[in-house]
Amino acid sequence: MTEPFSDHDIGALERDFLDHLWPPFTQMQGLKPIIIESAQGAIVRDIHGKEYIDAFASLWTVNVGHGRTEIIDAVVAQAADVACYHMFGIANPPSIELAAKVAGHLPGDLDHVFLCLGGGEAVETALKIARQYWRNKGKGAKYMVFYRDRSYHGTTFGATSAQGLALNRHKFEPLLPGFVKIGAPYCYRCAWGKTYGDCAIECAKAVELEIAFYGAENVGTLLGETMIGTGGVIPPPPEYWPLVGEICKANDVLVINDEVITGFGRSGTWFAFEQFGGRPDLVTMAKGLASGYLPLAAVAAREHVYQAFLGEAAEMKQFMSGATFQGHPLCSAAGLANLAIIEREKLVDRCRELGPYLQDGLKTLLKHPIVGDVRGVGLVAGIEYVQSKQTKEWFPPSAAAAAKVRDAAFARGVFVRLLGGGHVHAVAPPFVISHEQIDTIVRVLDESIGVVERQLGY
Questions:
Q1: What's the whole-model pTM score?
Q2: Checking DSSP bridges between strand 51-54 and strand 144-148, what pairing results, if any?
Q3: Is residue 248 classed exposed, middle or buried when 0-12, 13-18 and 19+ CB atoms within 10 A define those classes?
Q4: How far apart are CA 178 and CA 223, in angstroms?
Q5: What 3-state class would DSSP assign to 272?
Q6: Mind giving me the DSSP string for 273-329?
Q7: Of the candidates 90, 117, 186, 396, which lies 20 to 30 Å from 196 by C-alpha distance?
């Protein structure tokens, strides 16, 4: 552990943070700096020495926990061999080994892995693969991309064009043409006014109606998070993805499953589409691939997609996209070491076994009048706050119950993340979280919700 920061050092860092560092999605005016200085397992410490349970694994990212020296050592060892080299027709051993390792954990013929550096870049890449796939197949008119309400796929321009959260897109419009929003499988707030069990899975059948409306000859791709994440942690009904897959296959539409959040075990299986019944043509992944120790992401493609990019040099069918740092040897080495930990410590099994303990604990919060829904799978859950359980009406910004609960929990030593347009908390701890730490998360949230309810007059 590093030496404690002096009061002088702390003051200088806080001033430099406010004067020079421009973080994302952050209003700097009036900001009280939070500076994380060290971390171990599921615990992070700020620069003042206060400890917090990291109930969100940074940004649902540090799956194997903080402070894993095996990953650090692997990166240092790789740096001694080759620290950086491009991948334009050339490769390095860790990038090759990582691609093979990822393919080995994917079912079926998702055998071809394109390495990137972040989730948004992976989504952007998958969209470009889909667009060029149809051009290479002589069907360039199939350019349209369906995305879903409440979706979040990153902040590049292509990913923002497939953004189902208005807050994250309206400041950048007009966005790219050819992106069409469709309804989401959000059973708690069904867009079709149905109740699950008596709904005929209208959310999936709507995909068929939309394809018919725009014409299958124009629709090339459906992009969807296997489980909606930033939009509110919304698992789909079990019938959804199998039916969507059948519809897309019948209409010759590629399916991209965004597994940036759920990939590599968080849902209790290596990839969430394995338990939700999907059969995607392309899969994006990022956060859990290296547990955030270095930037790393990937897109996996099925054999039929990959084959469309093969041909004679003069045909120019090769994928016409790439960047300097893709397949970076240090990032790939971090990914390999991270996956080795997940395999050795059977952390996917741990998510599957520990998940019900987390979900059951959080469901006790439903006793509170402002908690409308608690939902999730494995080690990821969402808590949705409402003014009334009967009307399901959200709180206005002036009340901001979810933000108040977040702040109260933070003051009590637990980090949770506000999302879903400001009405949902996500809990997604590192896979190494203990039962006792889960109990603390539930207890602190219980106390914090009670405090906020009293403030709001409940």
A1: 0.96
A2: unpaired
A3: buried
A4: 13
A5: coil
A6: HHHHT---SEEEE-HHHHTTSS--EEEEE-HHHHHTT---GGG--S-----TTTT-H
A7: 396
- Domain ranges in the chain? 7-64+347-456, 70-344
Instruction: Say if residues 261 and 285 touch (Cβ distance below 8 Å).
Output: no
Identity (one letter) of the amino acid at 123? V
* Crossing angle of the two packed helices 401-411 and 435-456, in degrees rounded to 10: 130
Determine the Cα angle at 278 with ends 216 and 175, to 5°.
50
Amino acid residing at 166: A
Q: How far apart are CA 79 and CA 71, in angstroms?
A: 12
Six token digits for residue 449: 């919700």
Angle at 282 between CA 246 and CA 178, to 5 degrees: 80
Beta bridge partners of 417: 426
pLDDT tens for each residue of the chain, 458 residues long = 566 778 779 999 999 999 999 999 999 999 999 999 999 999 999 999 999 999 999 999 999 999 999 999 999 999 999 999 999 999 999 999 999 999 999 999 999 999 999 999 999 999 999 999 999 999 999 999 999 999 999 999 999 999 999 989 999 999 999 999 999 999 999 999 999 999 999 999 999 999 999 999 999 999 999 999 999 999 999 999 999 999 999 999 999 999 999 999 999 999 999 999 999 999 999 999 999 999 999 999 999 999 999 999 999 999 999 999 999 999 999 999 999 999 999 999 999 999 999 999 999 999 999 999 999 999 999 999 999 999 999 999 888 999 999 999 999 999 999 998 899 999 999 999 999 999 999 999 999 999 999 999 99
The identity of residue 8, as a single letter, is H
Distances (CA, A) of 393 to 57, 268, 308, 384, 388: 30, 32, 48, 11, 6
Fold of 7-64+347-456: Aspartate Aminotransferase, domain 1 (3.90.1150)
CATH classification code of 70-344: 3.40.640.10
